[in-house]
Input
Amino acid sequence: MASNSSSSTAQQRLRIIAGHLQKRPEDEHPSVAAQECKAETSRSNPSSATPVPKRRQEIMKWNGWGYSDSRFLFNKKGQAEFTGKRYRLSGLILPSLKDWFEGTFGANLQHKSPATPTVNLSAVAPPDLNEPFVEDLKAAGVAMSHDPEDRVFRAHGHCLHEIFALREGRIGRVPDMVVWPSCHKDVEKIVELACKHNVCLIPYGGGTSVSSALECPREETRSIVSLDTSQMNRILWIDEKNLTAHVEAGIIGQDLERQLNECGYCTGHEPDSMEFSSLGGWVATRASGMKKNIYGNIEELVVHIKMVTPRGVIEKSCLGPRMSTGPDIHHFILGSEGTLGVVTEVTLKIRPIPEYQKYGSVVFPNFQQGVACLREVARQRCAPASIRLMDNEQFQFGHALKPQVSSIFTSFLDGLKKFYITKFKGFDPHHLCVATLLFEGDRGKVLQHEKQVYDIAAKFGGLAAGEDNGQRGYMLTFVIAYLRDLGMDYYVIGESFETSVPWDRVLDLCRNVKERIVRECKERGVQFPPLSTCRVTQTYDAGACVYFYFAFNYRGLSDPVHVYEQVEHAAREEILANGGSLSHHHGVGKLRKEWMKESVSSVGLGMLKSVKEYVDPQNVFGNRNLL
Amino acid sequence: LAPRHPMLKKRDSFEDILEERRHSSDLRYALRCYTPTLYKGLVPCKASMLKSIVLQSDHLQYVIKQVSSESGDSTECVAEEASLILDEMAHRLQLSTVRFFVFTLSKAFKRLFRSVCVNEEGIQRLQQAVQEHPVVLLPSHRSYMDFLMMSYLLYMYDLPLPVIAAGMDFMSMKFVGEMLRMSGAFFIRRSFGGDKLYWAVFSEYVKTMLRNGYAPIEFFLEGTRSRTCKSLTPKTGLLNIVMEPFFKGELFDVNLVPVSISYERILEESLYARELLGIPKPKESTSGLLKARRVLSEDYGSMYVYFGHPVSVRSLTEGKITRSQYNLLPRCIPQKPSADTHEFLNDTAFRLVRIQEGNMVLKPWVLIATLLLQNPDGMDLSSLAEQTDWLRHLALAFGAFLDWPDHAACSEVISCSLALHRHLLSVSAGHVQLSVTDAPQVETTPEEAVFHQAVVVLSCASYRNQILHVFLRPALLAVAMQSANSNRKDDVYNCFNFLRNMFSSEFILCPGDSVQDFEEACYLLMKRGVLQVLEHEIVMSASGHSTLAFLSSVLDPFLQGYQVVSRYLCEETNENLTEKEFIPAVRNFALKLILAGRLKCYEALSSDLQKNALAAFLRLKAVMKVKVGDQVTLKVNKIAVNSLEDTLGKSDVISHQNSWWSRLVL
Output
């Protein structure tokens, strides 16, 4: 990154964000002034004015990840390419992906498993509407729909089994209707009516859940209403004196960041799903952002939360930065996963956009050395904005996603680098692993910080491996979810899951979980060894967050999703047995509920249950997550 | 783990490894290129590096600090002590020494044994296991030969050479101790109960080797050589050490490989008998070993080594051990096994020993020895042949791993066996009898004569003992049926359970397996047509008498022996019987009974039986240990002992030793 002045670095930062995020029409202006609730006045405004339309299926896939125009495919020449114009990778050819794909999974481009192209509307059960509720809601002027496409879209998150079923055209229980409140007051009204008429509400933010949190409980007999927060997406005010912003909770990450950027600020909260996930969703799941080392995780970013519950609105009376007023009521809300109410507005800390940003990467001879280095960086508390360590399999995967190089010179340089690392430095290409780094701050400090980190890395045999590798590593996090859809076109299914674990157990946990996955796949008749890989994605004083990818070729299996779920279950058991947590940031949902008692003790679970009982005795927020 | 009904078990076939040795150069063989299969996760490390890894380990550092703060010594001082302990303990495995052993042992084995048979399928399984996960080898222990043979075989099959946990007593043999050290033995003090530092050094040393995949760890579950050829109650200390890296997530899995080593004739045969009779064991010394050269000139028949199926610790623990119990304490802090871990270890140890037992090859002589012991006045060869054949079929039906030569007449097999064991027998005019063959010419006292005969009897018993595990459960049932007040199943079961508790130090009886054992016994006898097991009753079949009588007489020496001990405790003890005095005193008591003609059972002289009986009385709270000063005295509850003796006595109805056979013939 070659920016030299502070003004150009800000632009640089913007370009990067714009690079991997959706492009917006230029004429649109940010609406960052305090506004009145639009409930009465702007009800008739077309939804196209908002970044997330009510009919999301118009720009997003109904049965896969992300935007409809962006997807991986193998073209007629058998080369992989990424379509669309939204991402840096868009329109590029990825020459090595095919070989990696076939070699890793034993997959074959001849063997396709295409998805059902469109929703089979006849498979969607007719809505079971609570008429009095609908009438009252209409009277209150809240936008709503019981269009089957709208309902199907909100009946799932992005767990493998959810997407797999959609691709096969199987549709289970879906919400009976969707409502779009446009402000806090609307939500209050909806919740009040839901209590009155006893309907089940399921809050829906970005829809990026990977914990079965959005699945409609089968045993639910009431009418299920999906409460889509996407139209509550305004930044209500920015307080530059205290560096806070008050934002409606339906805003999605990229819009929040872009609009703040336009005013010279950022939250710095960048979860991998930030293109689609919402502020309310982050609060409800205890989300974690890639740059938490500088900005903190969501619980450190929120100053104030407003949530509508069946008992009424819960919020604190002031914006004090810390309080000693008994247990922090925010912590009942953070991670409540939609079981207690709807988060409507949040006051967040904001920061000026950093002057300078620099990517980097370090190659280590093996994973052990890499982990030792990260541990040392954490010990010295000098972690950059982001530091991630990929294992060897993931490093190779990253290489497979290198776009076609345009100049002979670049490919010559690449060859030279490879030669230097493997031959001259004696790194084994089957053991080496790479850490990607992102530094942020003022230029002088970034450069100083960079040197400090590279010096530590050198002590663990790490070699600086350039900015490109680093930047590509981060770009991958945005496109990797698209890759799963490609795999699913060719009999490959997979998913990611995560945990947090004390430092001294990181290596053992990684090795054991990866091996457990391989072994379980074998025992369950998976024909080809699975991809079982991990990376350390966050460092803390007392431990790290570890992220696993796991995928396999399911040809020859009669019930691949069941096999997948059994293996994931076993992997989670292994994580817990090795001292890992049930989840670092994905949450519990319904997928990991069975381990809650073991994780927080029965007294702990009882505490949470009693809160639920008090706040929502009718179980109006009936998604049955967590407890 | 252990199949319910042993006869369903398929066993591999054997190859004689000496065959090739007899046809090619031992020297070239010892010097051949050795390229062992390696563990895939091996962390390469020299023996010298091991020491610093162990001393630097978090675990040891933690304990050093703890000991230092408790004792007031400086940490440097404690660390120095740890280093000395490690020096005393550590092996210095080097290939050249192993090659030397391979050369000399090739020579020795060829002279000692007709054949050394190994199940090569077991070797193949081991080759596989060694690559996947760190391996722990668990051989049975009947002879000093055992671990030499193990290393020899592993070298021979290009498997990684093991490091072997050996008792400190070897170290007194200066030269030999060092040789063994260089061939992979490491030495542990026999007792170091409260010594935290010693325990830490020792356990960390073993775990480091295991974690790094340095070499297979070999140790003896039984802790020491069994002098009686019965398997000994397993120890769990080392088993816990090798499992802990799995419990704590440091290893994905550990493979336990039970190995059964059996000898047609044991080198230490009469040594053991003498030891059991209290004739003091010569201290292990190099010169003693040299004197043992005499043994080289004798014929010890065949030797069998059976490598069992690797048992994965991971699958063993499934549903039994919650590994997350180790989550809340830093892993370097030593933790005593929790109650359920302890139970698991104990259970696993017993099951592993049962696997060892089940895979132990039995030779025809074992059957003959059983019969000769039951007929102290000797037998006619023809009747011996007849009964041996009968017994052979019973043993096979109960799942014995019997190596009976194909296509050989029973009489031929018997005469071969008798020839190999002629030093225990006298054969004249078609009559065979256990007897002292190399009786000294000089006049002997009656006491000495008893001991000479006892040596023969105990030597012979060590062969019978090899097959006890096959008959044990049905025999307990047979005895229980005789002593029960009725045929009712629960009465019989209660008696069975009583005997099982009584003999749980004597035989390998898994604690908690009482119901299973009972069912197994019922099943075997039912299948044999000896019993009918009805819903509430157990009924003997018309043809079942002889089998039941035989089975009862198998346990007879033990029943009699325990009765002798209890009689001693009731009649002879004073207030101040110390634990140390117990064995010699009981031995004298038994000797007097024999000399007076009131006891025929020479096995009552065995210190092993006496120790086990005492352990049983202690366990059943009929005797208490009381510490007085630095002496431990035994307080006898005579009423309790008396009542135990009565219960034992009820089953001891077979006055005429061979009554079962006459019933069979009639």
The longest helix of chain A spans residues 467-489.
